[in-house]
Structure formats: C-alpha cells, structure tokens
C-alpha cells in the first residue's frame, strides 16, 4: 500500500452506521428531569446554590444534546425572517389547520408555533441558509434577554400539550355565514358603543346599514325623551288639580265564597309595619329558604364603578383557546372557549373592576369568552384561574 493511500485512509475514516436496534432505541429518547423537592432555603451565591444550578444546567444540556433520529421527509421546512419576525413555511408536511397565518399567499408561523413544532420534530427551521438546532432556536426565537416571550411560549406549550387549540387572540369573531354586516349587527354595535364608551368597529361603520340605523336610533332616543318630558308635565298638572273622584254607589253582589283574608291584612290592625307583615307571608319564607342556599359574596360599592382611571391596570389578552371537538377552522373561527391573560411572576392578580374592564374590551357581548388568567412563577410553575362574568 502506498503512502498516499495510507493518508487517505487516515483523513477519511470509515463511516459508522447505526444498527436497527440502535435506531429504534434512539428514535424517541426520554430524558426525565429531576423532580423538585422541598423549597431551598440557602442564601444567594452559596455553594449549595451553585451545585444545584450546575446540576440543572447539566440536565438541560443532556435534554438538548440527545440524539434524535426521525425521517427527513416527515418534517416541514420553514425559513426564519427577521423582518416579519416569523417563520415562512416553504414546504408543508402534515396538517397545519391550527398553526400559522396567511399573508399575501404565504404561510407564516409565530415564534412560539415554530419553536413548539421544532421541539416535536415536525419542523426544520433554517436561518441564513443553515439548519437551526433546538438550542440555537431558543436564542433566535425567544431572544437572549428575558422578556414576555418566555412566559408566552411556556404557556402555549403547556396548553397545546394538554389538548387545546391555542391561537393568537383576535378581535371580532365572525363566522362565514355572518361576514356580511346586517342591521342587527349595527344595532348591537351602537348599543355596545353607547354603554361601554368605546368606538364602533370599522367593519360596522363601512356597512350600508350603518347610517340609516344610526339616524333611526337618534330619532327613537329623542322620541323617548319627549315622552318622558310629557309624562312628567302631565303628572305635575294632575297633582295641582283638585280631586274630583266619583265613587260608584251601587250595591255589589257578595261572592258566594269569600276569599281568605291575608295575614298581612289581619295583622294591619295590630300596629305592626307593612314590612313585618309581609315577612309573615308564606311566599317570603320560601324565598328566604332559597336565598340562604346561595353562596353570595357581598361586593363593596366602589366595585361597581367601572370608569377607567389611573389606578386600574389594563391587561392584554394573548391567546384564545378552542376545543378540538368544537369544529375549529382558522379561516372562520368561532367564539373561543377561553381567552388567556398571562401575568408575570411579580404581577398581582387582577381585581374585580379590572376584570370587568378587560371583559368589556372584547367587541360584542355575545362573543365574550370567559377569561383564563395564568400566572407564571420564577420556577416556571403556572397557576390558572377561570373567571366567568355575567
């Protein structure tokens, strides 16, 4: 064997292929993270904390560096765009009904959707002509500095793995059958705008029924005001006129079976008040028994004042949740099952007034979904509370 051949063998070593059993073993690797025990009480910067952080980083690195073997043809391909801050899908593989949004005939994925599909090995993400690994994707999609993207993706991943369809929050859900604005839509939009002190949506204003409906509502409002003023004038005139009642002096036939006298009338001669007499009625006692079974929380008087001031915080609805068996379609989404609000770890939960204000931010009353408030702690534990506001 010549020297050139020996050098060639050293430079290009023989390729090692995995056996069938090794392929099956590494197809779905499972790396369990250590379970959290009792809360640590050591102070910051101690040796115990450094050891704990070192073990945590080693476990994360083991999860990210695990070899994953999947079919190359079983993944979609997307290219990350810095301008759009989204991943453009150039080749689809599988179903994408609940992922991405269309713009100018192209399908784009949000940063949390791209990272979620990348973790499931359903997506091959490319950036500047190179394939991005999962570890690089965390830095590229979520950023190097802490931001709300971390909590948004953590909540999105947890809810998606729980079986929900999670999409970005959208204002004004309209089904395919109600894309054309009707007179009823204009009426409800004007009533909602007058009660909630918010502008009428643009798609209502540009409809052909808006001007006529608005003029008709102004006429009805003025008519009601005129009737109220006339009624008050007639009441004043009646009070000023002398009483000229004429009573019927004819004898009336007595009833064959006189009605039983009420307890309130019998007790009126005892000197008790009318309220005390009414409390002796059977209908009041029945209502009192039913009322005592209800779990009622008494609110303060200021809780009903929903005017926005400097002390009321405004919350952003991030996601909308849909059920898989609810017939979800991205082209014509229905009213979501829940609307998600994500709180930071140091942010307190909203008050009653703030929840009412956030509920009224949604467009129409019949499309207001219950609010699911999720708080993400520093240790990445989530607490979720569901609010139903009637």
Automatic annotation (TrEMBL):
Specify the tRNA-splicing endonuclease subunit Sen54 N-terminal domain's residue ranges: 64-126
Instruction: Give the span(s) annotated as Disordered.
Output: 247-268
Identify the InterPro entries for this entry: tRNA_splic_suSen54, tRNA_splic_suSen54_N
Entry's Gene Ontology cellular component terms = tRNA-intron endonuclease complex
- Pfam families, sorted: tRNA_int_end_N2
Say if the entry is tagged with keyword Cytoplasm: no
Keywords assigned by UniProt, alphabetized? tRNA processing
Please give a single GO biological process term from the UniProt record: tRNA-type intron splice site recognition and cleavage
Give the family per the record. Belongs to the SEN54 family.
Q: Which PANTHER family match?
A: TRNA-SPLICING ENDONUCLEASE SUBUNIT SEN54
From the Swiss-Prot or TrEMBL record, give the protein name: tRNA-splicing endonuclease subunit Sen54 N-terminal domain-containing protein
